[in-house]
Amino acid sequence: MKTIFILLTFLVIQISTEEIHHLRGRRSSTCASRPYNPNYRICCQGNILTLPSGKASTSSCCGAKSYAINYRICCAGRILGLPSQNASSSSCCGTKAYNLNYHKCCRGKIIPRRQSC
C-alpha cells in the first residue's frame, strides 16, 4: 500500500491539473505502463514527452525524441530541419533531408531531380 501511494504522488507531481482531469475520465493512454494524456504528451520509445508542437496531430517521434512535423523531419533516427517550406515536399535519403521538388535520392545520394541515376 505504501508503494502505491508513493507512485501516485510521483505521478501527480509529473502532470498538470488539466492532465489529471483528463486522466480521470476522458482520454488516457499508457507509455511503458505509465498513464499519460495524449492531448498534452507523446510517448516515444517508453519516454513521456511534451508535445513539441502543442498538438498531437503535428507531433511525432524520431526514436526516443519528439519533434514537430511542420518544421522538422526524421531521417534515419536524426531530427533535421525541413529542406523546404512544406513537409509534403520533403523526404529523406539516408540520414539527409532533401526537397522533392528539386532533388531525388539515387542509391543513397541526393542528386538533381532531372538527372538520371
TrEMBL record:
The chain positions of domain Galaxin-like repeats read 19-114
Keywords annotated in UniProt: Signal
Top-rank lineage group of the source organism: Eukaryota
Please state the span of the N-terminal signal peptide per the UniProt entry.
1-17
A Pfam family of this chain:
Galaxin_repeat
What is the name attached to this protein's record? Galaxin-like repeats domain-containing protein
Source species of the chain: Clytia hemisphaerica
What lineage is on file? Eukaryota, Metazoa, Cnidaria, Hydrozoa, Hydroidolina
